Amino acid sequence: MADVLDAVVVGSGASGMLVASRLLDAGLSVLVLECGPLVRDKLPSCDRDKYEKLIAPVLPTTSPDWAWHGEGTPYDWQRVRAAGGRTLVWGGWCLRMDAHNHWDARAFGVPFPFAVGELDKHYHRVETLLGLREVPIEPPFDAVPRDLGVPVLPKRAAVGPCGCRAYVSLDRTRHVPLQPDAAVSRVLLDRRGRACGVAYVDVTTRTTHELPARAVVLCASPVETVRLLLASAPGGLGRNPQLIGKGLTDHVLIGHVVLLPRPAPRPGTLAPTERACTVARFVNAGRGTRRSYRGGFTIEVRGPVATDTLPDDTLASLGVDRADAAGMSHLVIHAMGESGPNPQRWATVDPARADALGRPLPVIHFAWGDDEAAMVQDMEQAVVSVADVLAVPGSRAVPLQVPLAGGGAGHEAGGCRMGRSAKTSVTDVTGAVRGVTGLYVADASLLPTALDRPPTLTVMALALNVADCVVEAMSRRDL
């Protein structure tokens, strides 16, 4: 049994590398399996163009290896099949949950299984790892609270080694053993029904392998984690297989670009700590602002940044000629709305269809509900109000997307909700899959709602909690 790892972690994104690093620091033997390739060169920090060119070859996910199927409202499953996951394209936005998020979850009927403030110790540890910085609020953003009477918060940014780009999960965890091009196909179980490792396909050789381990931690993203739980046993794994994939959700997103007829005050593209703020919680934050729908939304504002830094296809979509772009700048305003469980949204697998690696095809059924339809009206009005405050004479606002026309902001959540009730949750408060000893979930699958803000910081705090619980279970020899 000397070749048996203490733990195998599936996925090398924000939560996967954090979990693996924590387990390794506790003296456990760990290996991270990543289905995509590894960028072999060191990721640059100060040269944004070089960074984007370096990661560009590993971002496409259109090959038959990564096939999937969508039903209902068109859904854009925004994946990154490469070591680092979606942190490779992350903007570094970090906001903690607050009491409103707990109230929302209870309103949706899926309360968080911990109290307000209970995650603070984990937030603090994650923020230290991320090198978190606050961006000072400067003009023109100070006009928003003055003219609209709403609070504006500084952007809290997770930054890379020198602060010129956002944090990537590989930046401060390079000591973690990682095997790229290893697409996990199922969780292995022993005769007692305990997790005892994983089976995976080597993407480069198309050979299958088994990797034994005392514990398995799934950090593969909500859809992929759901696929693994459903594909690893007839009917799915755990005590509540009927709940796996249910509660899938994502953010409602509305955005505008505000084109300003003057150059940016400083040249260059937006680094994670440049000119940004959060307009906090427009609705459902108090008795005087309640609406008929559940959930709420926040607004992110970035800029102004030089418009001639945009690629030609983006300029064309904005109706800007390259010759005119040099004398212009622009703001980007996004409203991020919260959604919760909906019986018309779920993820599953089609056992009769497989991708090119032989794994059952993921199926995402997506639809927006009445809550989102009502919230979109307030979101649109709020974005326009912020744009009006920040505009100058001669400005022009261009919508970035048609609300609710398609699904997906790249922030999918749910599918393996954590909870205290053994009847209504897939995992318990430690992230352990109910009914399968040694199997844990530590990605955004655990979230009961999409939150009304960027989820990465909270996902990482939950992942650190899961990692602590695995370490404790190992020390008690429960695994």
Q: What report would you give on this structure?
A:
The structure is a single chain. The protein has 479 residues and is an alpha/beta fold. The chain is built from ten helices and 18 strands. It has helices at 14-25, 48-55, 99-107, 120-130, 143-148, 222-231, 312-318, 322-325, 370-390, 456-475; strands spanning 5-10, 30-33, 69-72, 133-134, 152-154, 156-157, 178-179, 182-189, 195-202, 208-218, 252-260, 276-279, 297-306, 329-337, 346-354, 360-366, 396-399, 439-441. The strands form four sheets. Strands 1, 2, 7, 8, 9, 10 and 18 form a seven-stranded mixed beta sheet that branches. A hairpin with a 5-residue loop joins β8 and β9. The radius of gyration is 22 Å and the shape is globular. The mean pLDDT is 91.
